[in-house]
Amino acid sequence: MPVLPALCRGGQPLSAAAGHCVFVLGGARSGKSRHAEALAEASGLERHYVATGRAFDDEMRERIALHRESRGGRWATHEEAVDLADLLRRIDAPGRVVLVDCLTLWVTNLMLDERDVAAESARLVSVLPTLQARLVLVSNEVGLGIVPENRMAREFRDHAGRLHQMVAAVATEVYFVAAGLPLKMKG
């Protein structure tokens, strides 16, 4: 698919400054992960991929396997479902770019583990500006549709929306991706 080179041209190389954080939002299959990966690859830095997904069924196991295969040996992969702030601290180092995909799966995991989502979100956001690695964070924008019909789905939407606002506030750059096209919203 010829979209990837266009995304590389559209994105700027990640800054060398500590605390540089890029936030990439979009809907399902919008091209947000592809754009985030292109930004990370264009940085020329040592690439680390943090996957937050959990395999609860065969379909998700297959998705995770396909993602691992597509990254190949070009990325060091770290899988972390809930303790994201701690993992980012552990793998932090200058000369690295760390891509986290994705924050909405992370919020789901926190909810399923009955963690305090607001406290964990605040803890994550407080760590971001302190890291030496360049960060690229990916998340699904879930607040543009209808109001969910059940309480858990509404709470999820609300947690994700609050987290997105917090991350966007500390991010150096923010992109919204739709139909494979990134719109730079900040930076």
From TrEMBL:
**What protein name does the entry list?**
Bifunctional adenosylcobalamin biosynthesis protein
- Entry annotation: catalytic residues: 67
Enzyme class name: transferase
The record's listing under Gene3D superfamilies reads: P-loop containing nucleotide triphosphate hydrolases
Q: In what pathway does it function?
A: Cofactor biosynthesis; adenosylcobalamin biosynthesis; adenosylcobalamin from cob(II)yrinate a,c-diamide: step 6/7; Cofactor biosynthesis; adenosylcobalamin biosynthesis; adenosylcobalamin from cob(II)yrinate a,c-diamide: step 5/7
Protein source organism: Ciceribacter ferrooxidans
Q: Which residues bind GTP?
A: 26-33, 51-53, 68-71, 79, 101
What biological-process terms (Gene Ontology) are attached? cobalamin biosynthetic process
> Main role?
Catalyzes ATP-dependent phosphorylation of adenosylcobinamide and addition of GMP to adenosylcobinamide phosphate.
Name the InterPro entries for this protein: CobU/CobP, P-loop_NTPase
**Which SUPFAM superfamilies does the UniProt record give?**
P-loop containing nucleoside triphosphate hydrolases
